[in-house]
Amino acid sequence: MAEAWLVVGLGNPGPRYERTRHNVGQMVVDELAARRNATFKTHKANARVAETWLRPGGPKLVLAKPNSFMNVSGGPVAGVAAFYGIAPERVIVIHDELDIPFDTLKLKAGGGHGGHNGVRDVAKALSTPEFVRVRVGIGRPPGRQDAADWVLDAFGGAERENLPVLIADAADAAEQVVDEGLLAAQQRHHAPRV
């Protein structure tokens, strides 16, 4: 049987943050679960976890949403990975990215955290930055708005229209990483949209 993959959506807990830009990673993991009728259950690693399959027969997917705040996501991610015996290179972290325009995805494995405190904490807790990231572009705030306020705001009206497509594309990208590898997913999802 193929080894399991851990797919994590970063975000903040509770209804106050549910629809904010910072929680787009959790929205994508919710989409992956919805496609499979998978249900999240509370896990001892301070996360909500759903066990499912990419397709009948495998590979196994462990979908996780930390119950901690974004900046301390590492403990729950490392705890779930350890519980299921999943190595860091089979961990996919889905998160918002200020430096990528809205409605754009970028995928990579390893490298720096780009100032993203959630990613920084996951790398620290896993003792390596060598995990896959699906970076969902939210763009920079307009004018002089503080980036910290921007990420904690809900998506704007025009963004909300395109958000379901962006979430579906990010879910597709995570599935493709598992199914065909990172390079194939990059080639598909880094191409300009037509």
Provide structural commentary.
Its EC number is 3.1.1.29. Keywords: Cytoplasm, Hydrolase, RNA-binding, tRNA-binding. Belongs to the PTH family. With about 190 residues, the chain is of the alpha/beta class. It has a single domain (about 5-190), classed as Peptidyl-tRNA hydrolase (Rossmann fold), CATH 3.40.50. The chain is built from six helices and seven strands, in the order βαβββαββαβααα. Helix 1 packs across helix 5, helix 2 (about 75-85) packs across helix 3 and helix 5 packs antiparallel against helix 6 (about 180-190). The chain is globular, with a radius of gyration of 15 Å. The model has no long low-confidence stretch (mean pLDDT about 95).
Strand order of the largest sheet: 2-3-4-1-5-7-6
Low-confidence stretches: none
CATH architecture: 3-Layer(aba) Sandwich
For the largest beta-sheet, the strand count, sense and barrel status come to: 7 strands, mixed
Mean pLDDT: 94
> So how many helices?
6
Site (Discriminates between blocked and unblocked aminoacyl-tRNA): 12
GO molecular function: peptidyl-tRNA hydrolase activity
Catalytic activity: an N-acyl-L-alpha-aminoacyl-tRNA + H2O = an N-acyl-L-amino acid + a tRNA + H(+)
Organism: Microbacterium koreense
List keywords for this structure.
194 residues; alpha/beta; Rossmann fold; seven-stranded mixed β-sheet; EC 3.1.1.29
